[in-house]
Amino acid sequence: PDERQALKARIRRLLKERNAVMVSHYYVHPDLQDLAEETGGLVSDSLEMARFGRDHAAQTLVVSGVRFMGETSKILSPEKTVLMPDLDATCSLDLGCPADAFAAFCDQHPDRTVVVYANTSAAVKARADWLVTSSCALDVVGALKAQGHKILWAPDRHLGSYIQRETGADMVFWNGACIVHDEFKGFELEALKREHPNAKVLVHPESPAEVVAMADAVGSTSGILKAAREMDAREFIVATDNGLMHHLRLQNPGKTFHEAPTAGNSATCKSCAHCPWMAMNGLADVARVLETVANTIQVDAAVIERARLPIDRMLDFTA
Ligand code: 13P
Ligand code: SF4
């Protein structure tokens, strides 16, 4: 604990010295979430992280999360220094959607509007017409459908098929998945619901359809938090990365939250629903990158110029 406190004090001092602000995702370690909030930064979902980084006056952003979040911040603010605790913190959706193969897929469907999830590389975003996160995907695709667009969707097949079921849009899909949410299981969730009959089920839409079908509320990380605050219930089962438990419990003292079962939930693995890449973010790394200005995010200027279009569309749409 002393070492943690010392690291936190060092980070607070370095943030001031470097005129830097910290932006953390809800899935990173609670220490990094708390530090961001305590120091005037932000802990939020991927959409609001992007907006906050763009609008904040600080010249240096420390993005605790995964690589696509740092890249989005850099695309929106190329003049800023964007630091990440670990540049190898990626995402299975990003890894599973290489830019070249994705461009070839788009070429096969020239009549479709390309809607890409935020969890992708800058190069994939540079091929998109629209960017979305899980908090605005339904509304964006719904609006595009109303305008007569046919959609090419990438990369998360579960989120894509959820949006298709909800909007009825004509969509073709890239076959990607989040390794964390893909593990939530319907059968085991049924059993847990029987154990907790009064619990409401909150689900991130990167989860499989059988799990989404059992949800009382489906939403992004911030959507799940909102549902937990507003729903008239005392007990919840939550199908998302267990990093979200920190804010669920902080915002709802007196309410009880259970983790939804994953394939890996067993005597040896009590909390398998945690993203291995989000887990790569640590206090010591944040202190080190602020001290050395190592781990800066770099994005090619031509990619920035093109990738900015779909991101700006999303931010304008949700403003
Ligand atoms: P949110 O956009 O809901 O924050 O989700 C990002 C993410 O990586 C979910 O796994
Ligand atoms: Fe990617 Fe899933 Fe990790 Fe989110 S939780 S960063 S979607 S692998």
UniProtKB/TrEMBL annotation:
InterPro entries xref list: NadA, NadA_sf
Zinc-finger found in the keyword field: no
GO cellular component: cytosol
Major enzyme class: transferase
GO BP field: 'de novo' NAD+ biosynthetic process from L-aspartate
Keywords per UniProt: 4Fe-4S, Cytoplasm, Iron, Iron-sulfur, Metal-binding, Pyridine nucleotide biosynthesis, Transferase
EC number per UniProt: 2.5.1.72
Pathway: Cofactor biosynthesis; NAD(+) biosynthesis; quinolinate from iminoaspartate: step 1/1
Catalysed reaction, written as an equation: iminosuccinate + dihydroxyacetone phosphate = quinolinate + phosphate + 2 H2O + H(+)
Subcellular compartments: Cytoplasm
Gene Ontology MF: a single term: metal ion binding
Swiss-Prot/TrEMBL cofactor(s): [4Fe-4S] cluster
Function comment: Catalyzes the condensation of iminoaspartate with dihydroxyacetone phosphate to form quinolinate.
PANTHER family: QUINOLINATE SYNTHASE, CHLOROPLASTIC, QUINOLINATE SYNTHETASE A
NCBIfam families for this protein: nadA, PRK09375.1-1, PRK09375.1-2
Name listed for the protein in its UniProt record: Quinolinate synthase
Annotated source species: Xylophilus rhododendri
